[in-house]
Design brief:
- By secondary structure, the protein is of the alpha/beta class.
- 37% of the residues lie in helices and 16% in strands.
- The strands form two sheets. The protein has a five-stranded mixed beta sheet, with helices on both faces. It has a four-stranded parallel beta sheet with strand order 7-6-8-9.
- A hairpin with a 2-residue loop joins strand 2 and strand 3.
- Helix 2 packs parallel to helix 4 and helix 7 packs across helix 8.
- The longest helix is centred in the middle third of the chain and has 19 residues.
- The protein starts with 7 loop residues before the first helix and ends with a helix.
- 36% of the residues are buried.
- The N terminus is likely disordered.
Length: 321
Amino acid sequence: MRIEDCPGALCNSISAAYCHDMFQPLRANHSANAAANARSGDTEEPEFVVLDVETACSRVSSICQIGIVGFRNGAVTFEYETLVDPQDHFSSFNTRIHGIAASHVLGQPCFTDIYDILQAHLNGRTTVAHSYFDKGALAAACRIHDRAMLQTTWLDSVRVAKRAWPELPSHRLNVVAKHLGIPLNHHDALSDARAAGMIVVKAIDHTGLQLSDWLAPQPRKRASAPPPPAADGTLKGQRIAILGESLNGSLAQLIAANGGRIMASVGATTTMLVVAADEPFGYVRYDAAFKKAEARRLSGADIQIVSATALLKTLSDRRDV
């Protein structure tokens, strides 16, 4: 489904459904001294910081909210949050996700205004983000605003969660937070950052691995071959790529059992991309495989993009016939 631009009247009606006060910056000090005081204002030097951003539209550079939380010895040492004027339009799709509309960022700082503060909090530190979407958004914003890339060591808390709790059906932030009993106001940048940090804290406690262990590169595992397709079945003749699960996991096994051939990636002969996430797909749309499949579909290629839930329902319905 294509992300539609949000007309002004619609944006206003959507934004009216949200309490404006809930989006006031936790720290609104963006003066010249704010950057200098950012690091000195931390009560303790954190072992790591956590970053989360929300964006105004499909362009990842359109940052409209930033949350940063510092952690040391399993506890929060500082929090920083602000709304940001992205100097870009607001999509109704994104506004429905996080509740931030154009009216909420009027008079708020733009990215260049807070760049020095971000440098003070992130440079030279380990920065956690739940998936590398936030890393990419920050890099894109630095690029279009002609600012140097922030010098920090990145750690993906999705990878941490997958290693610590491989039994979970999904490692999305809200799923892991619920499993671990972590409070979360999902898609609020400060709450998301705090929750991602607590996932790392709990993973350290759960596994005994220290932060340095999580940062160390993991040896590559040899990928297992996908299961061969059954000789017959509902999906016979379909060449199916999977986004969000392994090539030999339970979803792949089910597809193969129904005659579908598992593809290692989206290619010229792929007829279906199955996404292991619920619709609307949200930030999954930024994945290279999704974008490639969508581009092929829009160019007229015979390829479907479906959620795993929708595919499973189709298979179930056909079994009931």
